[in-house]
Amino acid sequence: MAEKNVLFSGMQPSGKPTLGNYLGAFKNWGTLQEEYNCIYCIADLHAITVRQEPSMLRKYTKELFALYLAAGLDNTKNIIYIQSNVSAHSELAWILNCYTYMGELSRMTQFKDKSQKQGKNIPTGLFNYPVLQAADILLYQTAVVPVGEDQRQHLELSRDIAIRFNNIYGDIFKIPEIYIPKAGAKIMGLQNPTKKMSKSDTDNENNVIYLLDDLKVIANKIKRSVTDSDNQIIYSDEKPGIKNLLNIYCAITNKEIKQAEKDFSGFGYGAFKEAVAEVVIEEIRPIQENFKRILADKEFIEKAIKDGAQKAECIANKTLKKVKKKVGFI
Ligand code: AQP
């Protein structure tokens, strides 16, 4: 790879990827692949922090790999790999666990949210997975991490852990910068627009647009999305449903919110929803077509997965070796 800064990001194969995952994450990754040496991970170690059915985990992992490629990520220019194929992630995570405080992890809002759904027996993996996330990022001497707003707190923790480690042992880790896209940073549910759209939210299918949903189903979900009754297309916290649809529309069209408000002035909600559905569908259609083609080529996928793991391992092991030496391992 040429001497460019490293960009790292990843996604969990913990369900069917959503429009939120796409707009908050991998739509933006594609635009950054010329500027950075990009490393994209399929975070299956993270996915098992909540119970996964093994055959579904395998299916979602492979599908997410194909979806990255279908959405325009180039595995000849970037490294795309499956996290559990590179054992350095688990090893560094253990070491960094010993440099992270319970208090820090207890403050993570994602832990508070996700642990509520687990009943009495909350897996410790759910508690300390931000440490694994720090290991993911720091192994590659990452300069920049593009994520949605929901991940900001975890990334701030990754920086704190890296700074703490460096203060003890010298400049081992590059301190990563957080990159949050302007539009699409937080896509909310269609039925509950005060809560983010999530792939593990399987209670109400109409709340979530899945990237691999039938296109007609997507149009219907948008048509049925919750709004309010004053029939005005205005971007306001008091109108979370309309705000969310405007965010989706602008994230896809790259229009400014103010411009979209002007364009839709005088529109009723029905016509507005139709316009949003149209841009969503035209964005997703080619991705679905590419996805089907790529996934059908089993040999290509197998080889791409293997190549990605080898390239990632090579970089990750260099950092891990330095860390082990510094902490005193023989
Ligand atoms: N609703 C969202 N809006 C914008 N960005 C989002 N991301 C997730 N949801 C939204 C971004 O997608 C990337 C991958 O996230 P992840 O799979 O590692 O975990 P997550 O953030 O917990 O995503 P989900 O969909 O909510 O998964 P589950 O339900 O399994 O927890 C990240 O960059 C994230 O910001």
Mean pLDDT across all amino acids = 94
Which class of the largest domain in CATH terms? Alpha Beta
Question: What name does CATH use for the topology of the largest domain?
Answer: Rossmann fold
Cα-based radius of gyration, to the nearest Å: 20 Å
End-to-end Cα distance, whole Å, is: 30 Å
Helix content: 40-55%
Find the CATH superfamily of the largest domain: HUPs
Low-confidence stretches: none
| Percent of residues in beta strands | 5-15%
Report the structural category: mainly alpha
Shape: globular
Count of extended strands = 5
- What hetero molecules are in the model? adenosine-5'-tetraphosphate
N-to-C SSE series? Answer: EHEHHEHHHHEHEHHHHH
Strand order of the largest sheet: 1-2-3
Sketch the major β-sheet: 3 strands, parallel
Q: Count the domains.
A: 2
Number of helices: 13
CATH architecture of the largest domain: 3-Layer(aba) Sandwich
